Amino acid sequence: MGVTEKLAQFVVGTDHDSLPEEVVTAAKRAVLDTLAVTIAGCGEEAAAIITAYVRELGAAAEAGVVGSGFQTAASEAALANGTLAHALDYDDVSTSMLGHPSAPLLPAVLALAEKTGAAGKDVIVAFVVGFEVECKVGSAIGASHYARGWHPTATLGTLGAAAACAKLLRSDVAATRAALGIATSLAGGTRQNFGTMSKPLHAGIAARNGVMAASLAARGFTADASIIEAPLGFLHLFGVGDHDAERAMASLGEPFDIISPGIAVKLYPCCYESHRALDATLQLQKGADIEPRRIARVEARVCRGTAIPLIHHRPRTGLEGKFSMEYCLAAALLDGRIDLASFSDEAVQRPQAQELLRRVEMVEEEQGQPIFGPATVTVILDDGSQHSRRVETPGGDPKAPLTWEELVAKYRDCAAGILPDAATARSVEIIADLEAAADVGELMGIVCLTSPGAEAPGAK
């Protein structure tokens, strides 16, 4: 049996009742965290632009755009919400796909679920199978995909979104294979756009294309039935020949990738490759008497491959700052924190930050674990004294997961000023018991501000 056939059979054959309880719980945690950062993304300039664009299309009112108060076609709602979900780079991470699994996936699922009146159980199982497709194909294609410059959130995210939407539409195996085939022709996204609005747009495009691919396939639109493994298919086209599809497919659902290796939840709204070094820096900043004016030099020793996405060494904008190890560590030392305010243009451009970041050096180890390995930060003061801290597992990692209460605290922080407090509390209640929801309409009405009488705090 070919890879595409195995994936399609898995998608069609998986139902909510067959999911282990821990998988359902992990999915609800991902929904909570991803909706949190989507809501917070409403305040970004990229969000304002994509929302205005989608509104001007004047498409049929099928699904809501988060924080906007209006509905549009499901595919366009997925485009907008996917962009919002990734706008802050605050969304979750998968080591299997070397990217962000939920930002391209959940917006597609929720948009189509709202359109079709799908139940909470349907949302959960669609999300889980889409997640599994993203991550297992990511494991199959290997790190070379990322190294060549592809953005897996865009490429693999398109496949995952298409698979999830096919599940929501109750497509058979043939139509699900076609959805994956169509999605492959729609997939794309380059890492050269990191630090610009086009990076979060990748997630939005993947979400929209997932809805479109599954919807076309459900209507009988055709595509190559072996698109993943074919000579000109996904693995060969986007990889460099080192993929191991058989090994990846052998673990399809055993275990589910959402459980092992699991999801890394971000504590900081910036590139995940900086998080170990940030944890180390903040621990140093809080535990030692380090005055920024006395810092002579900062050295961040990281595992090989860490620097690949951290392409902005002298950032001038908030978006560039998210992909700058130098700025992230300088801001942590100056402010004693890294949060949403750390990545405004003004914060990055302040003279103190620009001066200090020039004293930060990132050094990649030549040997040892590649990507997602430990980081050691050493701060050398003007008197020659040194303070050093090593971090192997960052907060929010699957080995150091956040509690449900900590996830809820992040959700409330992200929703502050956008959703009314009562709406925030009610949406958390719905997600906590998502499998019991008859449909997702109430949840989407809350977060999209489309429920009767809904309005943002302070709105007139």
What this model shows, in words?
By secondary structure, the chain is of the alpha+beta class. It folds into 2 domains: 3-250, 2-methylcitrate dehydratase PrpD (Orthogonal Bundle); 272-391, 2-Layer Sandwich (60s Ribosomal Protein L30, Chain: A), CATH 3.30.1330.120. The protein has 20 helices and 6 strands. It has a 4-stranded mixed sheet with strand order 4-3-5-6. Strands 1-2 form a two-stranded antiparallel sheet. Strand 1 (63-64) and strand 2 form a beta hairpin. The chain is globular. The termini are far apart. The mean pLDDT is 95.
Rg, rounded, reads 21 Å
Write the element-wise H/E pattern from the N-terminal end onward: HHHEEHHHHHHHHHHEHHHHEEEHHH
Number of strands: 6
| CATH topology heading of the largest domain | 2-methylcitrate dehydratase PrpD
Strand ordering within the main sheet:
4-3-5-6
Report the CATH architecture of the largest domain.
Orthogonal Bundle
What CATH first level of the largest domain would be assigned? Mainly Alpha
Q: Which structural class fits the helix and strand makeup?
A: alpha+beta
As for the number of domains, it is 2
Q: Provide the low-confidence segments as ranges.
A: none
Shape: globular
What is the helix tally? Answer: 20
